[in-house]
Amino acid sequence: MEEITIKDIAKLCGVGVSTVSRAINNHPDINPETKQMIMDVIQLHGYVPNNSARNLKRSDAKCIAVLVKGLNNPFFTNMIKTIEYDIKKKKYSMVLHHVEFDEDEADVALELVKEKRLKGLIFLGGHFRRSEQKLAMLNVPFILSTVNCDPVSIEESKYSNISVDDEAEMLRAVEYLIECGHKKIALISANRGDESIGQLRLAGYRKALESHNIPFDKELVFPMKDDVEAYTMENGYAVTKEMLLSGKEFTAICAISDSLAIGAIRALHDAGKRVPEDYSVMGFDGIELGKYITPSLSTMEQPVYTIAKETTKLLFDVIAGKKEHEHIVVPGKLIIRESTRQI
Fold first, then answer.
1. % residues pLDDT > 90 (the chain)
2. Given a cut of 60, is residue 116 above it in pLDDT?
3. Which of 158, 98, 167, 157 is nearest to 134 (CA)?
4. Who contacts 287 (Cβ-Cβ below 8 Å, separation ≥6)?
5. Were 312 and a residue from 8, 86, 128, 284 both cysteine, which residue would form a disulfide, CB within 3.0 to 4.6 Å?
6. Residue 256: in which H helix or E strand, if any?
7. What distance in Å separates the CA atoms of residue 343 and residue 338, rounded to the nearest whole number?
8. Between vectors from CA 128 to CA 79 and to CA 89, what angle results, nearest 5°?
9. Contact 290/262 with Cβ under 8 angstroms?
């Protein structure tokens, strides 16, 4: 889709370019009704004013933006380092942008493309099922990295994604707990409105139970707290305290991220419970911290280095015209440590 310009906005409004400019810059010398009409047209057509005029002279700027949903999630730390290294190696510069959990990453991306004159985009994490039309407006190559979801309205030839099969790998993690003898497995899940990895991992949890003839109990599914930052140790701590107060019986906790699982272990410890003697705890991601806590964390490890390397390689190949967009699934690895046991 072609990028709409200030001239297009002026034509649509039946005014001059200078009038549109005055409206954008909140100039007092403009009729309020005319200004409102112009702003309505700008919003309708998704026009992003380019405030970085100096970048127009640098249309050959070699810049890649990395948009991170959940910058405080330690899972992304090593990924960002690897991606930055590979971007610099190609003599490009990297713009790292934190997307808040209540922000639409597609809106952020559209503005960045306009402002920074980007050559490509990498999304780390995020929810995309409600952003199909906006993503289709991006006029630079983009990769959904660590995101295993199909924006249904976008042709597969228009974007790439690289991730584990979240549903299948969560199924494997839960099956391991079942093989250890656990039948009452509590899940720390995503927020109720989540349409991305959280729902896929919940589906894997349910399939594992079903395949072993264990009835699904919705009261053993505890969503993250809305008033605490998502996918954090603090959230896992708060949810696990709620689990213990609920009176529900369970012998294991499976969390949809390692950070949540680590918070759960701390909450159990503070409640006088032992891991794994009283409760087994399983994570998902394979962050480095999981090796060093006590007890060390059993987890479904995502191959962070491989995902990061494949992300940058594929993006630069697409930019150079060497490859078409691809959709890559990489395998996870079940890591058994001290936080789980046979019962």
1. 62
2. yes
3. 158
4. 74, 75, 258, 259
5. 86
6. none
7. 14
8. 30
9. yes
| Distance in angstroms (rounded) separating the CA atoms of residues 326 and 307 | 13
According to the model, what pLDDT value does residue 58 have?
43
Nearest-10 crossing angle of helices 75-89, 304-319: 40
Question: Could you tell me the two tokens for 227?
Answer: 């008033």
d(CA 196, CA 125): 9
Q: What is the per-residue pLDDT for 152? A: 47
Phi and psi angles of residue 280, each rounded to the nearest 5 degrees, phi first: -85, 150
Q: What pLDDT does residue 61 have?
A: 67
Pairing of strands 333-335, 298-301: antiparallel
Instruction: Please tell me what DSSP assigns to residue 137.
Output: T
Instruction: HSE, CB side, 13 Å, CA atoms: give it for residue 128.
Output: 29
The sign one gets for the Cα dihedral 148, 256, 336, 183 is negative
| Assigned token pair, 215 | 């009835």
Q: What is the pTM assigned to this prediction?
A: 0.80
Nearest to 282 by CA among 303, 253, 244: 253
Confidence at residue 88, expressed as pLDDT on a 0 to 100 scale: 95
